[in-house]
Fold Chorismatase FkbO/Hyg5-like N-terminal domain-containing protein.
Amino acid sequence: MGFLTFNVGGDLSDIDTSCILGGFGLGLTPANVPWPMQWLGVPVHGETTQGWQEGWVADRAVASGVRDGIRWRRHEGLLFGLIELAEASPRVIGGLEALTNDAYHRLFRLLDEQGLPHLWRVWNYMADIHGDAETLERYRQFNRGRARAFEQAARSVTGQVPAACALGVARGPLSIAFLAGAVPVQPVENPRQISAWRYPAQYGPQSPTFSRAVLARPPGQEWLMISGTASIVGHETVHRGDVLAQTRETLANIEAVVAQANRLAQAGPFTLPELSYRAYVRQLEDMPEVSRLLAHALGGASVVCVQADVCREDLLVEVEAMGWHPLA
Ligand code: 3EB
């Protein structure tokens, strides 16, 4: 397989669009592109009128298709897909569980058909993530719908699970983007945190289904993809109400995940400054100082900062990261 690169925040308009596997657009003004792009209509820190775009670029033209409402592109043993499902209007209380379950069923069916069984990384976004709190909070409904689909597809909900993030946005459909491949990923956990798939019941009737990070090895490359990481130690939120202390704790968690990944990495150790980061900040007014702290602490790494709701109400910030090395 040819090399894959991740073009961060740059101008994708110079690139042959047939080689773009998929990607993300962040900002208030949507762009219209021919590849599957997960668009988040969220405020970006320091946004220009263009917003922010990033994506995976292959070294040759990719295959593409639409199946069951999933837009996908495939480069040999690697597939990027995007599924967006609108919710009922008006919204039905409890409806997000069934919708999430449906989305993941379609996703797994596509992977079966494509002969690419291994889910690597999933980006989940939903409106009103804390809604329905009087019955079952929507993020908890999401966790039930997701885990049930894994189980129904005879997939593990512990141990061998993808890296992920799950965030709330102001409006829009349930939006799930994913990378899947021909080979399994190697999950990485964080010794400072209990595995999310073992969270106790106080966080909901179903623990979330994700690894703290994964090492993925398409031919000739080793990718480190770090899940959404927050100010959680053990299973508890720490530094309630203090966004800068939460950001520092998050950095300590990312450092611990990278150290753990480096024990398994085959292409040499990853360092913090070489990774690219996306930071989600709950309160718009916190973005400048979180952005400044991250830029300083990460030694000039690429960091894009957006406003979004982290899945626990007491979490003010969440950070994800990725990077890759050539593998001999
Ligand atoms: C946490 O550590 C913060 O439900 O897929 C981070 C990454 C979080 C992924 C998910 C949730 C998810 O629990 C929340």
